[in-house]
Amino acid sequence: MAPLEVGDKLPIDVVFSYLPYDVKEDMELTPEEKKELICKAPEYYNASHEWANKKVALFAMPGAFTPGCSGQQIPGLKATLAKFKTQGYDTIVALTYNDPWVMQAWRKENGIKDEILFLTDVDTRFSKNLTWNQGDRTSRYVLLLDRCQVVHAVKEEDFSQVTVTSADNIFHQMQLLKEEAEQS
Asked: Which residue(s) pair with 42 in the sheet?
C-alpha cells in the first residue's frame, strides 16, 4: 500500500490497540483495585468501523515521551481541541508505535481522559503500509478523514520537527477545507 492521498478511502481492515480511559482512574482505589486497573489487557480498536461515520484528525508521532511529541504536539492538541470540534471533527487521535501501556501512561501524564484517543500502531503496521515510518517508529504525519475518506494528508520531511503537522497548522487546514465545502 502506498501513502494515502486526498480522496482515498481508509482500508477496511485498519485496527489499532489501546487501553481506553476508565472512570476508575479518577477514584481512590485500594491497592488491589489499582493493580487490576493497571494490569488490564489492551483492546483492539477497529478504526475502519469506528470512523465510518465520523470526522477524524489522526496525529501520528514518532514516540510517546519524546521532546517534539510531549513538548509540542500533545500540548498543541490539547490547546486546539475545542477549535477542532468547531470544525466538526468528532475524534482526535494520537498514534505512535509505543505499546498500549506506554500510551496510557502518556495520556495520564498529560491529564487527558477520553478527549483524545491514544492508539498504538501495532508493529507499526499501518504506518509501514503507508511507507510513513522511520524504521520501527511511526513518522510524524496527519490524516484528516471524513467518513474514512482522506481529505488532507501531510507528513513532516524531518520527523524531529513539528511544522506542517502542528495543531495550529492542521486547524488552519480544517478551516480551509470547511470553506471549500461551503463554496461548492
From this structure: none
